[in-house]
Design a protein that fits this description.
Largest sheet of chain A: 7 strands, mixed
CATH superfamily of the largest domain in chain B: Thiamin diphosphate (ThDP)-binding fold, Pyr/PP domains
Strand content of chain B: 15-25%
Shape of chain A: globular
Distance between the termini of chain B: 51 Å
Strand content of chain A: 15-25%
Radius of gyration of chain B: 21 Å
CATH architecture of the largest domain in chain B: 3-Layer(aba) Sandwich
Largest interface: A-B, 20 and 27 residues
Oligomer: heterodimer
Helix content of chain B: 40-55%
Largest sheet of chain B: 6 strands, mixed
Shape of chain B: globular
Number of helices of chain A: 7
Number of domains of chain B: 2
Chain lengths: 191, 392
């Protein structure tokens, strides 16, 4: 794994994208690394396109400001591919993880991804609805990203999903999110 | 060793205040400091600490209540940002002039108009002359560490002055990053028990606060205020040395980065210093002898020490995250003040950057370093003050 990994999240307000970035930061911190997680603050209304960022590094992170060349791009809502420039600044070895019911090959074409860039898809919203009854794709996206990038051990991620949801929610919701995380990990497809 | 957590700058400051458990905190919410005080108020409501939380109707009232509580003999803290600090304006001078060691994280944010909630240093710079100690933090760890050290500096019996601990709004206040907390007991032990000086609540020994002093003594009073400020650096360094013994984390009046053998340097405060360090490393790899100086203490300002650290340079750029319309940036003015004591003065440029939260991007640091390389070669400055990353 490279010394510093930078991630950009594309989501819509209210989907919990910022929470996902936070959970990932917590999980990577448990692995002894340095982390950053921060959203881009704009009009904070439900449904508006939002971006959030992670930096994860073996070394102290001194860089502030948006991630300009994300190694990993997580797209929590595939309609954003048409709405915002999700490939902006993506390096040749970028990894895209997209929440969609569509086939990864179709998404690869739509993104215009290069041969050296990887494209993964997962039906994160469907998994979420089946796991805990709400269309909030973050937990399954976190699982999918973990599989696609090896950024963190799955057990560490699960512990942190549990910790994050454990503060606010009932056991049923926590269990549902843990299931969704696992299914995201298992069901993500590369193409 | 304390525990390692992933928290925001606001969370880290709230934790420091919780560990210190001040007697009184009077606060009014304002973005981006709201979240800091909301967390702190939560600790009070949950019974984790026994601070008397006074919820007031404005920042003017918040500072007024803090002044009353501090004069009464309590250890007092609050927090604010931007317009909140501006509304405290009148009371800031009274807190300092009355020698009340109130501690206030200032989550730096732009000032209206136009309305903007994002980070820049306009608020803090506007309070430059209020008589408050000002300490600026690069990241959440520094904001946490500085908050703890600020109590020791401000409450020192030779000082007894209020202090603001500044951190960049949103950039640091709302970013989650790795922070190492100190154990509660160690923080308590480090900060020590509060010693009240001339408390109003000592009814057997009545005191008078806020007297009228006219032409007979006001001039002397203000000179004395300056004198006490000159003692702050010495105390701050003593406190920092003790803090380093406890945590291993080193603090000075300013930080230098690859400066000793540098030919060109950027002087910049707070989070932008972090980004700049990364770019300096890249330039060093290319063989460019670049360095950085990051002031930590802005009031009092360590003119002589900074001059000594900068005197060997061939060109200096001072980056200001605040402006003085019709003047140079406030940090630039301080650095030119430092340079006064040098025998040969290096050429200097001033860049205004990041106003209202405009991102300070790597290419801006690169642009400045490229310009410094050219100035170091030719000795010529074309324009002293310019704006970085501005849309034309």
């Amino acid at each position: 794994m490279a010394k510093t990994i930078e991630i950009r999240w594309h989501g819509r307000g209210g989907q919990g994208t910022v929470t996902a970035a936070k959970v990932l930061a917590d999980a990577c911190l448990s692995g002894g690394r340095y982390v950053q997680a921060f959203p881009e603050y704009g009009p904070e209304r439900a449904g508006a396109p939002i971006r959030a960022f992670n930096r994860v590094s073996e070394n102290v992170i001194r860089m502030y400001g948006p991630v300009l060349h994300p190694k990993v791009i997580s797209i929590a809502d595939a309609t954003l591919i048409d709405a915002v420039n999700v490939t902006d600044g993506a390096p040749d070895d970028a990894i895209f993880v997209v929440n969609t019911s569509k086939d990864p090959k179709e998404i690869r074409e739509k993104l215009g991804a290069g041969d050296t860039q990887k494209v993964f898809t997962v039906n994160a919203t469907k998994i979420a609805v089946e796991s805990f009854g709400r269309p909030l794709p973050n937990s399954s996206m976190l699982g999918a990203i973990t599989k696609a990038t090896d950024i963190v051990e799955m057990d560490t991620l699960l512990e942190n999903v549990k910790k994050s949801f454990g503060k606010k929610f009932a056991q049923k919701i926590i269990d549902g999110n843990l299931d969704a995380t696992k299914r995201g990990y298992e069901e993500v497809k590369e193409g | 060793m304390g525990k390692i957590v992933a928290v925001t700058g606001n969370e880290a400051c709230a934790e420091a205040l919780k560990q210190i458990n001040p007697d009184v905190c009077a606060a009014y919410p304002i973005t981006p400091a709201t979240d800091l005080m909301q967390r702190f108020a939560g600790f009070v409501s949950d019974g984790k600490i026994d601070t008397e939380m006074v919820l007031v109707e404005s920042e003017h009232s918040a500072m007024s209540a803090c002044i009353g509580a501090a004069a009464a003999g309590g250890r007092v803290a609050t927090a604010t940002s931007s317009q909140g600090l501006a509304l405290m304006w009148e009371m800031l001078y009274i807190a300092a002039g009355t020698r009340l060691p109130i501690i206030m994280p200032l989550v730096n944010r732009a000032l209206s108009a136009p309305l903007n909630i994002h980070g820049d240093h306009s608020d803090g710079m506007g309070a430059r002359d209020t008589g408050w100690i000002q300490i600026y933090s690069e990241n959440a760890q520094e904001a946490y560490d500085n908050t703890i050290q600020a109590f020791r500096i401000a409450e020192h019996l030779d000082i007894r002055l209020p202090a603001m601990v500044c951190l960049d709004g949103f950039i640091v206040s709302h970013s989650i990053e790795r922070v190492e907390y100190i154990d509660d007991a160690d923080v308590k032990n480090f900060v020590g028990k509060f010693k009240a000086v001339n408390p109003l609540l000592d009814l057997d020994n009545p005191k008078s606060y806020g007297p009228l002093i006219l032409t007979d003594m006001y001039h002397e009073y203000k000179r004395a205020q300056h004198e006490v400020m000159t003692k702050v650096p010495g105390i701050a360094l003593e406190v920092a040395a003790e803090f380093e013994k406890m945590t291993g984390r080193k603090y000075g009046l300013f930080e230098t980065y690859r400066l000793e053998d540098a030919e060109i340097a950027i002087v910049v405060m707070s989070s932008a210093a972090g980004t700049t360090k990364d770019i300096i490393d890249q330039y060093r790899d290319k063989g460019v002898k670049a360095g950085l100086l990051k002031p930590r203490m802005f009031r009092p300002f360590p003119y002589v020490e900074i001059a000594d650290a900068l005197k060997h340079l061939k060109a200096i750029a001072v980056l200001d995250r605040a402006d003085s319309f019709g003047g140079y940036g406030p940090l630039f003015s301080e650095i030119t003040g430092s340079v006064m004591s040098m025998d040969t003065k290096p050429p200097m440029i001033n860049k205004i950057f990041g106003l209202g939260g405009r991102d300070y991007l790597p290419n801006q640091a690169e642009q400045v370093l490229d310009e410094l390389v050219k100035i170091a070669e030719t000795g010529k400055v074309e324009t002293i003050k310019e704006y970085l990353g501005v849309r034309e």
